[in-house]
C-alpha cells in the first residue's frame, strides 16, 4: 500500500513537472539584447520579455501583447515575431526577429543584424 502511494506520488510529480516545462530564449544582436521565457506545452511566450541595449542601465520589460508571433516551436528551435511599439518613446523601436536553431536575424532601425541565439530548455 505504501509502495503504491509512493509510485502514485512520483507519477503525479512527473506529469505536473512536464505540464509546466519552460525554456528561455536569449540573444545579443549587435547592441541589442532580448530575453524571454517560453512555455513548451502551450507554445507561447511567458511574460515578461526583457529588451536592452549596451547603453541601458537596466532592461525594459515588454508585454507579450505587444508582439505578433508569426511562428514558434521550441522543440524545433524556430521563432519569428514582430514587436510593435505603441508609439511609446520609452520602448524600443518596432522590430522583427527570426530565429532558426542557433542563428537569427534582428531587423530594427533600418538595420539587419545577424546573431547567435541561445535556447535553454528546463
Mean pLDDT value = 76
Determine the N-to-C terminus distance.
33 Å
Stretches where pLDDT is under 50 for at least 5 consecutive residues are: 1-19
Instruction: Report the principal-axis shape.
Output: globular
Number of helical regions: 1
Biggest sheet descriptor: 9 strands, antiparallel
**Strand numbers in spatial order across the main sheet:** 4-3-2-1-9-8-7-6-5
Query: Helicity level, as a percent range?
Result: 10-25%
Oligomeric state of shown chains: single chain
Strands, count? 9
Radius of gyration: 18 Å
How much of the polypeptide forms β-strand, as a percent range? over 45%
Instruction: Give me the strand/helix succession.
Output: HEEEEEEEEE
Instruction: Quickly give the structural class.
Output: mainly beta
What is the number of independent domains?
Answer: 1
Could you describe the 3D structure shown?
The protein has one helix at 2-19, and strands spanning 22-29, 32-39, 44-53, 60-62, 67-73, 78-83, 95-100, 103-108, 111-121. With 122 residues, the protein is mainly β. It has one domain (22-121). The chain is globular and about 35 Å long. It starts with a helix and ends with a strand.
Helix-strand layout with pairing:
Blueprint lengths: L1 H18 L2 E8 L2 E8 L4 E10 L6 E3 L4 E7 L4 E6 L11 E6 L2 E6 L2 E11 L1
Structure characteristics:
single chain; 1 helix; mainly beta; 122 residues; disordered N terminus
Entry summary:
With 122 residues, the chain is mostly beta strands.
Amino acid at each position: 500500500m505504501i509502495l503504491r502511494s509512493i509510485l502514485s506520488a512520483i507519477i503525479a510529480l512527473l506529469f505536473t513537472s512536464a505540464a509546466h516545462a519552460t525554456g528561455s530564449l536569449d540573444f545579443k544582436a549587435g547592441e541589442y539584447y532580448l530575453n524571454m521565457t517560453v512555455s513548451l506545452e502551450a507554445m507561447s511566450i511567458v511574460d515578461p520579455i526583457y529588451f536592452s541595449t549596451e547603453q541601458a542601465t537596466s532592461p525594459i520589460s515588454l508585454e507579450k501583447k505587444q508582439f505578433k508571433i508569426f511562428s514558434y516551436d521550441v522543440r524545433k528551435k524556430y521563432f519569428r515575431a514582430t514587436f510593435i511599439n505603441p508609439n511609446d518613446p520609452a520602448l524600443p523601436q518596432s522590430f522583427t526577429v527570426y530565429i532558426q536553431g542557433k542563428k537569427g536575424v534582428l531587423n530594427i532601425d533600418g538595420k539587419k543584424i545577424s546573431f547567435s541565439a541561445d535556447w535553454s530548455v528546463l
